[in-house]
Amino acid sequence: MQDVQNSKDYREIDIDQVGVKGISYPITVRDKNEGEQQTVAKINMYVNLPRYYKGTHMSRFVEILNEHSRRISLQSFVGILEDMKKRLDAKSSHMEITFPYFINKAAPVTRSQGLMEYQCTFKGSLDNKSDLMIIIRVPISTLCPCSKEISEFGAHNQRGEVRLQVRFKKFIWIEDLIKLVEDSASSDVYSVLKREDEKFVTERAYNNPMFVEDIVREIAIKLNTDQNITWFAVEAENFESIHNHNAYAYVEKHKS
Protein backbone atom coordinates (compact mmCIF):
# COMPACT_ATOMS: atom_id res chain seq x y z
CA MET A 1 0.00 0.00 0.00
CA GLN A 2 1.14 3.55 -0.68
CA ASP A 3 2.95 5.27 2.24
CA VAL A 4 1.29 8.70 2.11
CA GLN A 5 3.18 10.03 5.14
CA ASN A 6 6.53 9.53 3.39
CA SER A 7 5.39 11.28 0.22
CA LYS A 8 7.00 14.60 -0.68
CA ASP A 9 5.67 17.90 0.63
CA TYR A 10 6.50 21.04 -1.37
CA ARG A 11 5.57 23.81 1.07
CA GLU A 12 9.12 23.95 2.50
CA ILE A 13 8.06 24.20 6.17
CA ASP A 14 9.70 22.17 8.93
CA ILE A 15 7.43 21.11 11.79
CA ASP A 16 8.96 21.35 15.26
CA GLN A 17 6.71 18.82 16.97
CA VAL A 18 4.20 16.37 15.55
CA GLY A 19 2.76 13.29 17.18
CA VAL A 20 0.03 12.04 19.49
CA LYS A 21 -1.59 13.52 22.61
CA GLY A 22 -3.74 12.28 25.43
CA ILE A 23 -2.87 8.57 25.43
CA SER A 24 -4.09 6.94 28.66
CA TYR A 25 -1.54 4.36 29.75
CA PRO A 26 -0.54 2.43 32.90
CA ILE A 27 2.92 3.28 34.24
CA THR A 28 5.12 2.36 37.19
CA VAL A 29 6.59 5.09 39.39
CA ARG A 30 9.21 4.59 42.08
CA ASP A 31 7.65 5.08 45.53
CA LYS A 32 10.01 6.06 48.36
CA ASN A 33 8.02 4.19 51.01
CA GLU A 34 6.40 1.33 49.08
CA GLY A 35 9.00 0.62 46.41
CA GLU A 36 6.73 1.08 43.39
CA GLN A 37 3.37 2.66 42.67
CA GLN A 38 1.08 1.78 39.78
CA THR A 39 -0.84 4.66 38.25
CA VAL A 40 -2.43 5.72 34.97
CA ALA A 41 -0.87 8.53 32.96
CA LYS A 42 -1.82 10.80 30.11
CA ILE A 43 1.03 10.68 27.62
CA ASN A 44 2.00 13.07 24.82
CA MET A 45 4.67 12.06 22.29
CA TYR A 46 6.20 14.16 19.50
CA VAL A 47 9.07 14.23 17.03
CA ASN A 48 10.28 16.85 14.60
CA LEU A 49 9.25 16.50 10.94
CA PRO A 50 11.50 17.77 8.11
CA ARG A 51 9.95 19.91 5.40
CA TYR A 52 10.26 17.20 2.73
CA TYR A 53 7.92 14.70 4.50
CA LYS A 54 4.16 15.07 4.29
CA GLY A 55 3.47 13.44 7.67
CA THR A 56 4.70 11.22 10.49
CA HIS A 57 3.61 7.68 11.33
CA MET A 58 1.24 8.08 14.28
CA SER A 59 0.85 4.35 14.96
CA ARG A 60 4.56 3.98 15.70
CA PHE A 61 4.27 6.12 18.82
CA VAL A 62 1.74 3.72 20.32
CA GLU A 63 3.81 0.72 19.21
CA ILE A 64 6.79 2.10 21.13
CA LEU A 65 4.67 2.50 24.26
CA ASN A 66 3.42 -1.06 23.93
CA GLU A 67 6.97 -2.37 23.60
CA HIS A 68 7.93 -0.68 26.88
CA SER A 69 4.60 -1.67 28.46
CA ARG A 70 4.50 -1.15 32.26
CA ARG A 71 8.24 -0.44 32.35
CA ILE A 72 7.53 3.20 31.51
CA SER A 73 9.16 5.28 34.25
CA LEU A 74 11.63 8.11 34.82
CA GLN A 75 14.45 5.58 34.53
CA SER A 76 13.31 4.38 31.07
CA PHE A 77 12.46 7.87 29.78
CA VAL A 78 15.60 8.47 27.71
CA GLY A 79 15.41 4.97 26.21
CA ILE A 80 11.89 5.66 24.94
CA LEU A 81 13.01 8.99 23.45
CA GLU A 82 15.86 7.19 21.68
CA ASP A 83 13.43 4.62 20.25
CA MET A 84 11.19 7.43 19.00
CA LYS A 85 14.06 9.11 17.15
CA LYS A 86 15.19 5.84 15.58
CA ARG A 87 11.80 4.43 14.60
CA LEU A 88 10.49 7.72 13.23
CA ASP A 89 13.77 8.82 11.61
CA ALA A 90 13.73 12.07 13.58
CA LYS A 91 16.42 14.44 14.87
CA SER A 92 14.52 15.28 18.07
CA SER A 93 11.92 13.56 20.23
CA HIS A 94 9.74 14.80 23.07
CA MET A 95 7.47 13.18 25.64
CA GLU A 96 5.25 14.32 28.52
CA ILE A 97 3.84 11.87 31.08
CA THR A 98 1.27 13.34 33.50
CA PHE A 99 -0.17 11.21 36.29
CA PRO A 100 -1.75 11.31 39.76
CA TYR A 101 0.64 10.27 42.51
CA PHE A 102 -0.69 9.22 45.91
CA ILE A 103 0.98 9.47 49.32
CA ASN A 104 -0.47 7.98 52.49
CA LYS A 105 -0.36 10.99 54.81
CA ALA A 106 -1.03 10.97 58.55
CA ALA A 107 -2.92 13.77 60.30
CA PRO A 108 -0.59 15.83 62.54
CA VAL A 109 -2.09 14.92 65.95
CA THR A 110 -4.34 11.85 65.72
CA ARG A 111 -2.18 10.25 62.98
CA SER A 112 -5.35 9.34 61.07
CA GLN A 113 -4.35 8.00 57.66
CA GLY A 114 -5.56 9.33 54.32
CA LEU A 115 -4.36 9.33 50.72
CA MET A 116 -3.25 12.68 49.31
CA GLU A 117 -3.18 13.12 45.53
CA TYR A 118 -0.49 15.15 43.78
CA GLN A 119 -0.41 15.83 40.03
CA CYS A 120 3.01 15.05 38.58
CA THR A 121 4.60 15.30 35.15
CA PHE A 122 7.77 13.82 33.71
CA LYS A 123 8.77 15.91 30.69
CA GLY A 124 11.73 15.31 28.43
CA SER A 125 13.31 15.81 25.04
CA LEU A 126 16.24 14.36 23.15
CA ASP A 127 18.20 15.84 20.27
CA ASN A 128 21.99 15.88 20.64
CA LYS A 129 21.54 15.51 24.40
CA SER A 130 18.71 14.65 26.76
CA ASP A 131 16.75 17.12 28.90
CA LEU A 132 14.52 15.79 31.69
CA MET A 133 12.23 17.71 34.02
CA ILE A 134 9.90 16.86 36.91
CA ILE A 135 6.82 19.04 37.44
CA ILE A 136 4.72 18.71 40.60
CA ARG A 137 1.55 20.49 41.74
CA VAL A 138 1.29 20.63 45.53
CA PRO A 139 -1.81 21.92 47.38
CA ILE A 140 -0.97 24.15 50.34
CA SER A 141 -2.64 26.32 52.98
CA THR A 142 -1.68 29.95 53.61
CA LEU A 143 -2.60 32.65 56.10
CA CYS A 144 -2.30 36.31 55.13
CA PRO A 145 0.35 38.26 57.14
CA CYS A 146 -1.34 41.58 56.37
CA SER A 147 -4.75 40.36 57.56
CA LYS A 148 -3.21 39.05 60.78
CA GLU A 149 -1.41 42.34 61.40
CA ILE A 150 -4.39 44.65 60.94
CA SER A 151 -7.21 42.51 62.37
CA GLU A 152 -8.21 42.43 66.02
CA PHE A 153 -9.63 38.93 65.63
CA GLY A 154 -8.12 36.22 63.46
CA ALA A 155 -6.90 36.48 59.86
CA HIS A 156 -8.13 35.21 56.51
CA ASN A 157 -6.63 31.99 55.15
CA GLN A 158 -7.09 29.97 52.02
CA ARG A 159 -5.92 27.02 50.03
CA GLY A 160 -3.31 27.54 47.37
CA GLU A 161 -1.15 25.60 44.96
CA VAL A 162 2.57 25.48 44.27
CA ARG A 163 3.76 24.35 40.85
CA LEU A 164 7.38 23.25 41.07
CA GLN A 165 9.57 22.40 38.06
CA VAL A 166 13.11 21.04 38.46
CA ARG A 167 15.97 19.78 36.32
CA PHE A 168 18.46 17.55 38.10
CA LYS A 169 21.72 15.59 37.82
CA LYS A 170 20.59 12.27 39.31
CA PHE A 171 17.40 10.59 40.43
CA ILE A 172 15.22 12.59 42.82
CA TRP A 173 12.26 11.39 44.90
CA ILE A 174 8.83 12.88 44.27
CA GLU A 175 8.17 12.68 48.02
CA ASP A 176 11.21 14.86 48.82
CA LEU A 177 10.07 17.60 46.46
CA ILE A 178 6.56 17.53 47.90
CA LYS A 179 7.85 17.77 51.47
CA LEU A 180 10.11 20.68 50.54
CA VAL A 181 7.08 22.58 49.22
CA GLU A 182 4.77 21.71 52.11
CA ASP A 183 7.39 22.77 54.66
CA SER A 184 7.50 26.19 52.97
CA ALA A 185 3.77 26.99 53.36
CA SER A 186 1.73 28.19 56.32
CA SER A 187 0.45 24.63 56.70
CA ASP A 188 -0.05 21.37 54.84
CA VAL A 189 -3.32 20.20 53.29
CA TYR A 190 -4.64 16.83 54.52
CA SER A 191 -7.31 14.41 53.31
CA VAL A 192 -8.35 13.34 56.85
CA LEU A 193 -8.48 15.68 59.87
CA LYS A 194 -10.13 15.12 63.26
CA ARG A 195 -11.00 18.02 65.56
CA GLU A 196 -7.64 17.86 67.34
CA ASP A 197 -5.92 17.99 63.96
CA GLU A 198 -8.00 20.94 62.77
CA LYS A 199 -7.04 22.88 65.90
CA PHE A 200 -3.37 22.11 65.31
CA VAL A 201 -3.44 23.01 61.61
CA THR A 202 -5.37 26.25 62.19
CA GLU A 203 -3.02 27.42 64.93
CA ARG A 204 0.09 26.39 62.98
CA ALA A 205 -1.04 28.49 60.01
CA TYR A 206 -1.85 31.44 62.29
CA ASN A 207 1.66 31.30 63.75
CA ASN A 208 3.22 30.97 60.29
CA PRO A 209 1.63 33.60 58.00
CA MET A 210 2.82 33.58 54.38
CA PHE A 211 2.38 35.73 51.29
CA VAL A 212 2.86 33.99 47.95
CA GLU A 213 6.11 35.99 47.77
CA ASP A 214 7.26 34.34 51.00
CA ILE A 215 6.47 30.86 49.70
CA VAL A 216 8.43 31.08 46.44
CA ARG A 217 11.39 32.67 48.25
CA GLU A 218 11.45 29.94 50.91
CA ILE A 219 11.39 27.21 48.29
CA ALA A 220 14.05 28.97 46.19
CA ILE A 221 16.40 29.19 49.19
CA LYS A 222 16.13 25.43 49.77
CA LEU A 223 16.60 24.55 46.10
CA ASN A 224 19.62 26.86 45.85
CA THR A 225 21.44 24.73 48.42
CA ASP A 226 20.62 21.40 46.70
CA GLN A 227 23.59 20.46 44.52
CA ASN A 228 21.48 17.92 42.62
CA ILE A 229 19.16 20.62 41.23
CA THR A 230 20.52 22.39 38.13
CA TRP A 231 17.46 24.55 37.32
CA PHE A 232 14.15 25.28 38.93
CA ALA A 233 10.99 27.30 38.45
CA VAL A 234 8.52 27.72 41.30
CA GLU A 235 5.15 29.46 41.21
CA ALA A 236 2.65 29.92 44.00
CA GLU A 237 -1.02 30.81 43.60
CA ASN A 238 -3.42 31.56 46.44
CA PHE A 239 -7.13 30.99 45.77
CA GLU A 240 -8.08 34.03 47.81
CA SER A 241 -10.96 33.66 50.25
CA ILE A 242 -11.95 37.35 50.57
CA HIS A 243 -10.72 38.85 47.27
CA ASN A 244 -12.16 38.53 43.79
CA HIS A 245 -8.78 37.56 42.42
CA ASN A 246 -5.93 35.15 43.10
CA ALA A 247 -2.47 36.09 44.39
CA TYR A 248 0.53 34.85 42.36
CA ALA A 249 4.35 34.80 42.46
CA TYR A 250 7.04 33.16 40.31
CA VAL A 251 10.80 32.55 40.61
CA GLU A 252 13.10 30.85 38.09
CA LYS A 253 16.82 30.15 38.31
CA HIS A 254 19.48 28.44 36.20
CA LYS A 255 22.11 27.11 38.61
CA SER A 256 24.49 25.43 36.17
Briefly note the CATH topology name of the largest domain: Urate Oxidase
Total domains = 2
Number of strands: 8
Strand order of the largest sheet: 1-2-3-4-5-6-7-8
Residue stretches low in confidence (pLDDT < 50, at least 5 long) are none
- Structural class per helix/strand content? alpha+beta
Beta-strand residue fraction: 35-45%
Tell me the name of the CATH class of the largest domain: Alpha Beta
Q: What is the global morphology? A: elongated
- Helix residue percentage: 10-25%
**CATH superfamily membership of the largest domain, which one?**
Urate Oxidase
Mean pLDDT: 91
**What letter string, H or E per element, gives the SSE order?**
EEHHEEEHEHHHEE
CATH architecture of the largest domain: Roll
The whole-angstrom Rg is 22 Å
Helices, by number, come to 6
The major beta sheet can be summarized as: 8 strands, antiparallel
Distance between the termini: 51 Å
